[in-house]
Design brief:
It is elongated, with a radius of gyration of 19 Å. The chain contains six helices and 13 strands. The protein folds into two domains: 175 residues, FAD/NAD(P)-binding domain; 69 residues, 3-Layer(bba) Sandwich (FAD/NAD(P)-binding domain). The structure holds flavin-adenine dinucleotide (FAD).
């Protein structure tokens, strides 16, 4: 099937893009490699999403994905490996299992956790390495654990683990891992998940897709939304805003 718009990523940016595209009468497909919601799924409490005084990231993601499903928008679960431009308004999106053709593309792949250094991975040995305290913390009830990192994500992981573990060590990137720690929780920031797109759009030196507030990339017909774009503020509302702007730009391109 030839789609009008394929949206890569079902985080808040991608889901919002899909709502705008479908309501504009476009034939749209979302492709998501993991689960809908993206990074926010693991957040315990979100308090800056308008209309919800406080809500868990999982509930917020579920609500938005239900809205998308109710509109009849299909989500394909697979990882996008590349996007190729065949001609004007004709792109091929390749995944592990499939190839899709579409007239335009919105890349909304967000960011993924930065991996532990080689030295610390070696140091961790057979101990578990986790990138999500909310997902795996409960496995270490009354046991010592270590959090690697010093930013906001690390603070969030530490306060979560303090209610579960017997002790929570905090160390920095490349510090030795305490001998008695049973698991290593990594919280050293995020990197844009854009490797698969470096042939089709221009990236900056950190790997973010270069685009202004209009969400238009270096490749006509390919748009970008959310945390994977060069921008100053990476938050839920700015991801949602990008979703709307990128879709409006795609519609203008199509029409
Ligand atoms: C712990 C934590 C707490 C946070 N708390 C808040 C908060 O309280 N308030 C706030 O405003 N912001 C918060 N943020 C930031 C917020 O989560 C992000 O700004 C926002 O979720 C970005 O949305 P996005 O759609 O751009 O990207 P993401 O949420 O990263 O979604 C991208 C999606 O694309 C998918 N994907 C990636 N690559 C591919 C591929 N090749 N093929 C197919 N799919 C792919 C991913 O699986 C993912 O589902 C928090 C972030 C974290 C990590």
């Amino acid at each position: 099937m030839d789609y009008d718009i394929i949206i890569i990523g079902a985080g808040i940016a991608g889901l919002t893009s899909a709502i705008y595209a479908k309501r504009a009468g476009k034939n749209v497909l979302i492709i998501e490699s993991k689960i809908p919601g993206g990074q926010i799924v693991n957040a315990i409490g979100v308090e800056n999403w308008p209309g919800e005084a406080t809500i868990s990231g999982a509930d917020l993601s579920e609500k938005i994905h239900q809205q998308v499903a109710k509109l009849g928008i299909k989500t394909e679960y697979d990882e996008v490996l590349s996007v190729e431009k065949n001609s004007e308004k004709n792109f091929t999106v390749k995944t592990h299992d499939n190839e899709f053709t579409t007239k335009s593309v919105i890349i909304a792949v967000g960011a993924e956790p930065r991996k532990l250094s080689e030295k610390q991975t070696k140091d961790a040995g057979k101990r578990a390495i986790s990138y999500c305290a909310t997902c795996d913390g409960a496995l270490y009830q009354d046991q010592p654990v270590v959090v690697v990192g010093s930013g906001n994500t690390a603070k969030h992981e530490i306060s979560y683990l303090e209610n579960i573990a017997s002790k929570v060590y905090q160390i920095h990137h490349d510090d030795p891992i305490p001998e008695d720690a049973k698991a290593v929780f990594v919280a050293i920031g995020h990197v844009p998940a854009t490797k698969a797109f470096k042939e089709i759009v221009d990236l900056d030196e950190k790997g973010y897709i270069i685009a202004g507030e209009d969400c238009i990339t270096s490749c006509p017909g390919v748009f970008v939304a959310g945390d994977c774009r060069t921008k100053g503020v990476r938050q839920l509302v700015t991801a949602a805003a990008d979703g709307a702007v990128a879709t409006e730009a795609a519609i203008k391109y199509l029409d």
